[in-house]
DNA sequence: CGGGGGTTTGACGAACGTCAATCGGGGTGG
DNA sequence: CCACCCCGATTGACGTTCGTCAAACCCCCG
């Protein structure tokens, strides 16, 4: 733990009944300002932050169905995910939701829905949108920001499809780690060469389409190859260049699991 | 071939230089009318249909970058797909685009883009949207229709993620076939128990994350189990109930590939 | 000292990819 | 009409990847 970032660490518990603000939210608020909330919502935002909500790990964030006043739910701290369960218990994580991400726009229709679930302790705010006609048009700057965010989210979904459909296990893992690093770096929650990974390996498994055991082996392969380090919930990217090549499928040498026999001890 | 539907059949060729309208577009136009084009664009739609465009298989449908006038591109006949290529040639098909689907809203940013490619001969129309401020607000009915279509498309993407991430090969195949049947049935291009499948098996492979060989074996497993029939580009759903159960992961018996030894001849 | 949750490891089998040969139908030139 | 060819579907053989089961391990905590 190298900085003040304590995002989702285990000891980060609700104090008694009043949860402690468990993260540095300044970078996120700054990101929101950049969006277009600047010219339109100066202290509305501050008031929203004052009324922020807290969620326990594994709690569902879909608590309001189409509220009367148009509003924007934003993840301020902690990790969440969009997921769906199959009847036999299998879980698929569609995407990770990181601080600064927008939580709106879920489709909650019928049995083929997507649920937003907290993976760590989570803090959110509700920013009421100006009551324009059809909730758009008043602050076109903001509407544009929402559209951009939505489009980025779509791009991430497509990246996820590439991983699941056409990448090998190591490639998928490398790509996902790079995505998380990039997104966390963008909101000031990661360093140039490391980022916090506050989820268990079976959560990564449900995001990558692996089994938990295979997540473990894949991570160890990346460690053995000196591409990453991983301990205490912190991932260090030792060789980002090779990681990027690996994720692109353009690595000269193929990484081999199951080291045949030798190369285990001093030899 | 039991009806007038000739969607994407091989003999369906461009005549000389003037392509022949190669499908019955009435159901699609009717679907468009239901959307809200009824109250707003009575003969604008007809004029658009008159100026319809044709594309060869494997041609790219992304021919205009953010046109000045807001417009809606709609697939009238034929199959297309959204896809992305990796540098080494691997292809992933994100989604199939069937008659009646909207082609807009692609993200064409940087290297992580999605391309729309024709899989068969394709016919499209461009419906100019009323020039409202920010291209919305004028026909909120139509804007709503677009939003609904977008949300359905998102749901399909999530179904695709379930297939790739958490379903077995047979489950994925059954689920995809059911999705295609349902969507084609909705626009009148399929029967209650059959639908046209005018793509090669390697195209299915790129959509399911399989190899072409494995697509073949999976299809044969479904045929051997008397769940479907498949020939001449037509899929017949013999036992829809069991197919649905299979896609849900709630099948009592597990389908076995690689029939051990017996059960090949008369026994 | 015991216990529980999460990680790591090993062993084994099933699912899936790759390579390569074969088949089958439609088109084409002789 | 027939030999030839090309493309796509099919099949077999074989190796790799990945899931499953189960045990060991590790750390923190009571």
The multimeric state of the shown protein is: homodimer
Strand content of chain A: 15-25%
Name the structural class of chain A. Answer: alpha+beta
Order of strands across the main sheet of chain A: 1-6-2
Q: SSE order of chain A, as H and E?
A: HHEEEEEEHHEHHEEH
Radius of gyration based on Cα positions of chain A: 20 Å
Shape of chain A: globular
Number of strands of chain A: 9
Mean pLDDT of chain A: 78
Measured distance between first and last alpha carbons of chain A: 34 Å
Largest interface: A-B, 36 and 36 residues
DSSP summary: helix tally of chain A = 7
Low-confidence stretches of chain A: 1-20, 132-138, 260-267
How many strands, which pairing sense, and closed or not: the largest β-sheet of chain A?
3 strands, antiparallel
Query: How much helical structure, as a percent, in the residues of chain A?
Result: 25-40%
Question: What is the topological layout?
Answer:
The structure is a homodimer of 267-residue chains.
Chain A: H1 26-40, H2 42-50, E1 53-55, E2 71-77, E3 80-85, E4 91-97, E5 115-118, E6 122-128, H3 140-166, H4 169-186, E7 194-196, H5 201-208, H6 212-224, E8 228-231, E9 234-237, H7 240-248
Antiparallel strand pairs in A: 1-6, 2-6, 3-4, 3-5, 7-9, 8-9
Helix pairs in contact in A: 3-4, 4-6, 4-7, 5-6
Chain A binds a DNA duplex (30 and 30 nucleotides) through α6.
């Amino acid at each position: 733990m190298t900085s003040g970032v304590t995002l989702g660490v285990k000891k980060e518990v609700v104090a008694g009944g009043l949860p402690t603000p468990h993260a540095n939210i300044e970078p996120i608020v700054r990101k929101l300002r950049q969006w277009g909330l600047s010219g339109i919502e100066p202290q509305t935002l501050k008031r929203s932050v004052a009324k922020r909500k807290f969620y326990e790990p594994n709690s569902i964030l879909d608590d309001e169905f189409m509220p009367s006043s148009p509003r924007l739910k934003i993840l301020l701290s902690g990790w969440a995910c969009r997921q769906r369960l199959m009847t036999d218990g299998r879980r698929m994580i569609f995407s990770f939701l990181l601080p600064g991400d927008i939580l709106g726009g879920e489709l909650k229709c019928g049995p083929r829905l997507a649920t937003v679930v907290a993976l760590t302790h989570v803090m959110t705010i509700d920013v009421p949108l100006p009551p324009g006609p059809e909730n758009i048009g008043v602050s076109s700057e903001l509407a544009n920001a929402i559209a951009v965010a939505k489009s980025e989210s779509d791009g991430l979904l497509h990246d996820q499809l590439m991983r699941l459909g056409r990448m090998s296990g190591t490639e998928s893992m490398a790509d996902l780690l790079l995505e998380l690093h990039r997104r966390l770096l963008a909101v000031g929650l990661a360093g140039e060469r490391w980022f916090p990974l506050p989820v268990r390996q079976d959560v990564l498994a449900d995001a990558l389409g692996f089994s938990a055991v295979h997540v473990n082996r894949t991570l160890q392969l990346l460690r053995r190859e000196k591409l990453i380090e991983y301990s205490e919930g912190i991932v260090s990217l030792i060789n980002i260049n090779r990681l990027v090549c690996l994720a692109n499928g353009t690595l000269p040498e193929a990484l081999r699991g199951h080291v045949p026999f030798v190369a285990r001890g001093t030899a």
